[in-house]
Specification:
Elements lengths: L1 E5 L12 H7 L4 E3 L8 H11 L2 E6 L19 H18 L3 E3 L8 H15 L3 E4 L15 H11 L4 E6 H7 L3 H8 L3 E6 L10 H13 L4 E4 L12 H9 L2
Parallel strand pairs: 1-2, 1-8, 2-3, 3-4, 4-5, 5-6, 6-7, 7-8
Helix pairs in contact: 3-4, 7-8, 8-9
Length: 249
């Protein structure tokens, strides 16, 4: 079970660059985060190397986050900015040794534009993996890709060798409610999992741990990002990690 600390949500008691050491001290061997672009790639790379951590995922630039943009991939008229973001993300990925990038679709948008941009990004990224992630409409109203089955159909239908599904168990639960069945059906298309407790998006509990184990068994080589908001201090809530690891055979 390859668990990665999400440093955008976990260890928020510390400045961002200090979270890498905290994750390593807590027993993590990998990390993910939303966006690296506020920091020099060399700074982040030094933290990763110094702590012996693997960077498993981050997102392409999302557009103007403060103005409400949540990705550009599906937005008509923003194609040039999306393509610039692909190049910028690729540069960071090379510096950080990261092999998987997520393209946020955006609020609203057009499916034809979405497919064209994904095809461009997949080609431009070469041997890197590009993911799409369905996000539930409660946490992110109006998000273009808000259905796990639609996300799987998109990946299967485009049939690009490096376009894969990013499957967040929390979002799947909020969208559909039937998570175990979708883990089994969609696992062959998944390149990255993310996990959180279904109540409040806090630490996973026993029910979520059972699903995490099912996903880990289905794809033993894939990383799982711990994309949850700690209910209190991050370190105090890490007991679930031992329970998850003990549940694996």
């Amino acid at each position: 079970m390859r668990l990665a600390a999400n440093l955008s949500m976990m260890f928020n008691e510390l400045p961002f660059l200090d979270r890498f050491a905290a994750a390593r001290a807590a027993g993590f061997e990998a990390v993910e985060f939303l966006f690296p672009y506020a920091f020099d790639a060399r700074e982040i790379a030094a933290r990763l190397e110094g702590e012996g951590l693997e960077q498993v995922l981050f997102n392409l630039p999302p557009g103007d986050w403060e103005a409400g943009e949540r990705g550009l991939a599906a937005l008509p008229g923003r194609e040039a900015a999306f393509r610039e973001g692909v190049a910028r993300a690729a540069d960071y990925a090379a510096a950080l040794g990261c092999r998987t990038l997520h393209a946020m679709a955006g609020i609203g948008g057009d499916d034809a534009v979405y497919r064209e941009n994904l095809a461009f990004a997949a080609d431009a990224l070469g041997d890197l993996t590009l993911t799409v992630e369905p996000i539930n409409p409660v946490d992110m109203p109006g998000y273009h890709l808000a259905d796990m089955d639609a996300g799987a159909a998109l990946v299967a239908g485009m049939d690009l060798p490096n376009l894969r599904l990013q499957f967040d168990l929390y979002h799947c639960h909020r969208i559909h409610g039937e998570v175990a069945d979708r883990i089994a059906r969609h696992a062959p298309l998944v390149a990255h999992w993310q996990v959180a407790g279904f109540s409040g998006r806090h630490e996973p509990g026993p029910d979520e741990i059972a699903l995490i184990v099912a996903a880990a068994r289905a794809t033993p080589d894939l990383a799982m990002g711990c994309e949850y908001r700690p209910a209190g201090a991050t370190k105090a809530g890490l007991g679930w990690l031992d329970a998850a690891r003990q549940a694996m055979p």
